[in-house]
Specification:
- By secondary structure, this protein is α/β, with parallel strands linked by helices.
- The chain has helices at 13-25, 46-50, 68-77; strands at residues 2-8, 34-40, 54-58.
- The chain has a single domain, classed as 3-Layer(aba) Sandwich (Rossmann fold), CATH 3.40.50.
- The chain has 3 helices and 3 strands; from the N terminus they run βαβαβα.
- Helices cover 35% and strands 24% of the residues.
- It is flat and about 35 Å long.
Length: 79
C-alpha cells in the first residue's frame, strides 16, 4: 500500500481548515490503496519521511515563504 505523508504547520483556523479539507479529500470515493499519515511539522521524523511514497506540505505563506516550523522540519530531516 502506498503511503502519503502530510506534513503541516497550521497555526491559524484558516490553515487548519485547509489541512482538514486536504486530509478529507484523501478519503474521497475512488481513492484506494493509500495510507495517509499526517504529522505536525515540528513532530515529523526522518523515519516518517523515509517510510512515505509521496508528500503533501501545508504551511501558511509568511512574507512569501514557508513557515519557520516547516523550515525546521526540512533542517531536521535533511541529511
Amino acid at each position: 500500500m502506498a503511503r502519503l505523508l502530510i506534513v503541516h504547520h497550521t497555526p491559524s483556523p484558516a490553515t487548519h481548515a485547509m489541512f482538514e479539507a486536504v486530509r478529507d479529500g484523501t478519503r474521497a470515493d475512488g481513492i484506494e490503496g493509500v495510507e495517509v499519515v499526517a504529522t505536525a511539522a515540528l513532530a515529523t521524523t526522518v523515519p516518517d519521511v523515509l517510510a512515505a511514497d509521496a508528500y503533501l506540505l501545508g504551511t501558511p505563506a509568511n512574507l512569501g515563504t514557508m513557515s519557520g516550523a516547516l523550515k525546521h522540519c526540512f533542517d531536521t530531516i535533511y541529511y
